[in-house]
């Protein structure tokens, strides 16, 4: 075993020595395309665009080394500085239209050029037998001073209210390790098949490392006093503040305990609501919650209102009504059917409230387009000191009408605003003065929707999965190599090892990373059969890929998963090699220590013998004297 371990160690030494030979000629490449004193291999971004004209499905990209198929972003770019960061979307099929090619609700991180950065795996998204809702609210949040991708996923049975779905919240760290928040909130969900009681709408972290989530409790109630049936069902809008680690409920609020049913602007008979448990009267429709100090800001879509809720007793502290101003006096502009209310710059003198103003419900009306709004709310309350309009983002010549869903980030890092248009599959970035800077469409109206869209920064290095490489050499033409690493950011290039077989790999150069999947050719040697690459970041190789040889294929999800399994087997073999090598060194060290101890013992014996002889000689000499 030790002889074999030494042989394998020599092979690894030879590989890395070859890399060192190439890299000794100059610094490693940076992501800006500078020229280096080394062997550079030309590379390009690789993807194929597929279109199915027989259906409403939006065009999608396909790759050689990934099973994911993100939508093509139809991008419009205008003059002006864009904010740093990536775009976060999770397109969902609307009304069974099958408008997305990848699994409905897959979360995607994409750059502003439309290149894929990360596609979330769909493991667990079909965890019940109902209608999969997929991922929503896909974004970055902070927990315990670390950045996480957070998202909701769940499902329910067809025929129930789309906005009332039970599920769970997932957290993915920068190494793509995952944990879930799936508390039992003890509520009455729509269907027994629905797993989890966290609602689809809100999953917002607080400054206290807790999370506020929405939920709906289906409650039977007598509504004859407002013209409804005696055995009606209502969706009691609720929110909970949760301990992320344990799922323990730290605060609970129920709308029926604090707000009158008469405040609803959504009729009791709307869409047949209120008759059955499956389709309850959604009189409030809570769709966003944020902890503000010790209190909570909520958006009540069916009231056209934003409420501030006391964190002490759950009472309503004030109401911003989209039509008449509520507690604040007359409104400078109106809002209706809104989503995603957030507080900014909160002081004792007031705060700014931003929101996504749907303005329409199911269909457009009054030709008033959906927009992003921000108001300054002066405090303390004074009807003679009304709200002030701070910002209104809309396009007079390119009106969008989003009847449901949506999000508005007031500041994405440089003062720019970013909007996701919900039922309309479009995201936009605006300058602080309201000028449109960037727009991307990723589906047909009515066929695809995207609950919220965000622009955020993210840094990722997958721990469990390595880069995936594939080599093709049809009929002994020039070998062509494809490589990608789903979720890895700030990778500037690929260090290339190639050879006629897996045991003869030698460093041959560096290719610059381009796009999600990079392709390059090994034109100098058409007989090369195998290749391995190393991902370069900040001048260092941070991870090696699998070793791929001609004949390997990644044409389906099964092939992709088998390749990943091969990767894992290779890593396991390397771990065994490392263990065997350490065993060799351990034995060598023990033998060496034994030799040292024997040598010391011999030296001590000789020293003691000489010492005794000197003592005897000195004793005789003294007696003779």
TrEMBL record:
It comes from Extremus antarcticus. Residues 1-24 form the signal peptide. Keywords: Membrane, Signal, Transmembrane, Transmembrane helix. This is ASST-domain-containing protein. InterPro entries: Arylsulfate_ST, ASST-like. The keyword Membrane applies. The chain crosses the membrane at residues 587-608. Pfam families: Arylsulfotran_2.
